[in-house]
Description:
This protein is mostly helical and 560 residues long. It is built from 20 helices and no strands.
Amino acid sequence: xxxxxxxxxxxxxxxxxxxxxxxxxxxxxxxxxxxxxxxxxxxxxxxxxxxxxxxxxxxxxxxxxxxxxxxxxxxxxxxxxxxxxxxxxxxxxxxxxxxxxxxxxxxxxxxxxxxxxxxxxxxxxxxxxxxxxxxxxxxxxxxxxxxxxxxxxxxxxxxxxxxxxxxxxxxxxxxxxxxxxxxxxxxxxxxxxxxxxxxxxxxxxxxxxxxxxxxxxxxxxxxxxxxxxxxxxxxxxxxxxxxxxxxxxxxxxxxxxxxxxxxxxxxxxxxxxxxxxxxxxxxxxxxxxxxxxxxxxxxxxxxxxxxxxxxxxxxxxxxxxxxxxxxxxxxxxxxxxxxxxxxxxxxxxxxxxxxxxxxxxxxxxxxxxxxxxxxxxxxxxxxxxxxxxxxxxxxxxxxxxxxxxxxxxxxxxxxxxxxxxxxxxxxxxxxxxxxxxxxxxxxxxxxxxxxxxxxxxxxxxxxxxxxxxxxxxxxxxxxxxxxxxxxxxxxxxxxxxxxxxxxxxxxxxxxxxxxxxxxxxxxxxxxxxxxxxxxxxxxxxxxxxxxxxxxxxxxxxxxx
Length: 560
């Protein structure tokens, strides 16, 4: 079926369904335009957005909240250094290894279903973390928590992509960028507050238990307000692909995560080199799988979409820069400057606010007008903020105060906000809806890979500058000097991102798509063609009309 036929069919079905609904309730039959206007349960769509965004925020906070509480966990639970490493690394490894699989499972079995399974399992794992009787149980619960997050998180962007028409997604991704900005800094702040308050004498445990009411509420409300969506044609889970992608990611990320603590052993380098071989085998197998039954785990055709391929490259390098900065920044404040966790957490508030405001402004106002230039301006703004931070750290040294950090953090946060939200928009704008889950999983996976690469580079650009056997009075100055050296690398990474952005389309497809849809479908069903115009990448038939009834193959009522 052509895209025009699909849209026409959906328009007819939606109009008949809505007119029939009015007639059966005793109302006079309305014209098609009036029927569409009258039956507009828009609130449900935004309720669903609030639910999935809350889940995304919960995951983002959980990634960072643990770091701030590590000293308390070590003292209270008696965890060894190795166990502490696994409490943080276990989550990251399970999360990254399962993201692509989680996204594809959502395409196959339903994004709502997988989201509810993921948030339910995440909540249960959080309870197990909070009530862990020993460090071993805490490590196991954190691995389970990461695995459940890998089912939950890919569905967030997939549900947004499948639920909202193209002309609304820019605003939605702006909100998503704001949530990311808040989550990036709220984790350490919230962790610091909960740890210092020592609620009910529970020490560090509330950092996990706080997820329980949020998760339960998300589970109940999500089952009511999120509409199910699947790939429009039947897909099967590619088990060989699952095994290869999981093995490749573990072979790459495990040595990066533990390499510094283990002294970068030879087996780690062999493992990372072997990961490239596994990824090569994965590509070859996925090509074969696509030809054989059209149901691969990784949809390689996505990389033929210029916006997706270029965006993935930018996401990876962006993750490297953030992976370096946030870890080094935390160590600089708490170890180098000797600040308490709460003071360090509060210092990040200006950054968080700047990210949130810039993200909303960029997607709703700037990107529709200036396109790719906004993202490039964001990269240059981040470079300026990093250089300003570098200058202040050098000038004030150990006497620097939080208020003196505010300006560079605001500049950096504004730059990050200009990049993150519209970047997600551009990456997904040309993706066919039946591959939304796979694309979302890939986006999250490359972000995690970028972060892991950044964390691995910290051992070179930060710890490599710190001498061994330091006396207590030498620790602060050494960490300050190492922080300044690491900032130079962050500035270089951001400059590389600026250059990579030239490969992005000048404007996000969705904004052009929405304008074209308005011109083509000026009649009473004005929203019907918004998705159908996307199809230069073969997405027309699959996308159909999000605004009226979703894809024909979904057979699920769409939120309007």
